[in-house]
Amino acid sequence: MRKGLKNREVGPVGSPDKLNRIVDGTSIKGDINTDSNFRLDGYLNGTLESSGKVVVGPSGKIEGEVVCANADIEGEIIGNLKVDGLLILKSTAKVIGNITAGKIGIENGAEFNGNCNMSGLPVQSEQIPIEANGAESESELVY
Questions:
Q1: Strand residue runs (E) in the chain
Q2: Residue-range definition of the domain harbouring residue 33
Q3: Could you give the number of structural domains in the chain?
Q4: pLDDT tens digits along 16-56
Q5: Is 7 inside any structural domain?
């Protein structure tokens, strides 16, 4: 163990002693890079890169890219997410952007608008034309 402020022992990167926290009512414009876990309940306009876990609380909002090891999203992200391990979108989450993740879990009620890639390959989207006159019969619809 390393010694931290006031000779207090500080644990490894994944420990609660190494948590960065931005509380509700705080607004940051710029990029954040950290080797430890990060919780955001405020607002960030910029890129967030973390070697640990990122948690965006219910009141948290990020406009920009998020790159991290693992993530739990309860708030809003407008931008791309790159998660090496597990990404969990909670029921209150709203994500507008592309997701690249090792594994993903999405609770009922979560909103996601973008592409999701779990293979590590670049994300490519393909538009499927839909006829405006509603020519598709109900038997052709897939539920």
A1: 2-3, 9-10, 19-22, 27-29, 32-34, 37-40, 43-45, 48-50, 53-56, 61-63, 66-68, 70-73, 76-78, 81-89, 94-96, 99-106, 111-113, 116-117
A2: 20-111
A3: 1
A4: 567 899 999 999 999 999 999 999 999 999 999 999 999 99
A5: no
